[in-house]
Amino acid sequence: MLKKSYNYASDMDLEAYSAATSSLHYHDHYEILIYLGNQCQYIVNDVEYTLYNGDIIIIPPTIPHLMLSEEGINNSRYILMVPQNLLDQFAMVNEPLHEDILNFYDEPGHYRLDQESLDNTLSYLGKILDYADYAVEDSEFVTAYHLYQSLMKIFHAKKIPSMAGNYKDDKHFSHIIYYIDQHFRESDLQLERITQEFDISPYYLSKLFRKEMNQNFHEYLIEKRANYAAQLINNINTNKLSLQDVSNASGFGDYSTFYRSFKKVYNTSPKKYAQQHTQTVL
């Protein structure tokens, strides 16, 4: 079963779903959540995870969990509810990876896909929803196919280490990512500040970033700021911000840098993006 949940609308009874999941609970199926909102916390088996746009949480059967978020925050998400027998069948299709796939989904975890894999996964899930209104006999195979493709993409996702401890003690790269995610809106956040904060060389940080994130520090920071700017623009009719205000709030030092960076990520200018997504003339 696949659900896509929004703050404002849903193809399920969101009120009933929210009531059922507002306290610590568990299921007899696998729950795989692909988060598309701004930020939330998930408690899974007494471990707290901070989720950002594109993050994935895997929750095996009978594992207690709870979602925490601020009221009014965008918490759009896909929720895959996969019965154990169906996951077993999918794993059998890949006989050499059968045990690895089952072990992967049997362990609670916090994962992140690269942008291309995330886009592909969302495309597969979107196609499942496209067939939701078809008769079962007309959609069963195509639904199973796209669900299988989604689960295999997630199987190859990169695990995000726990935030317990600190970088000097355990060298977990997640501490660096967490620091950036907390400070990216500050215009003085640059490579030098990160290297000073964590007492590592620029060369080592650059190498580490490429290894862990498959992109360099600058690309990650620009993408983070541009995505945040897009969220502000999407709500520009409510927050009444100018594009200069959006630039400043997103951590860009000046408007020309904001313009170039935003266009690089979204292939359009901030002004055209606003007009396309909000019908606002700026």
Automatic annotation (TrEMBL):
Superkingdom classification of source: Bacteria
Entries under Gene3D superfamilies matching the protein: Homeodomain-like, Jelly Rolls
Annotated SUPFAM superfamilies: Homeodomain-like, Regulatory protein AraC
InterPro entries: AraC-bd, Homeodomain-like_sf, HTH-like, HTH_AraC, HTH_AraC-typ_CS, RmlC-like_jellyroll
Keyword DNA-binding in record: yes
Molecular-function GO terms, alphabetical: DNA-binding transcription factor activity; sequence-specific DNA binding
Listed Pfam families: AraC_binding, HTH_18
Domain HTH araC/xylS-type: 174-276
KW DNA-binding (keyword) present: yes
Keywords linked to the UniProt accession: DNA-binding, Transcription, Transcription regulation
Name listed for the protein in its UniProt record: AraC family transcriptional regulator
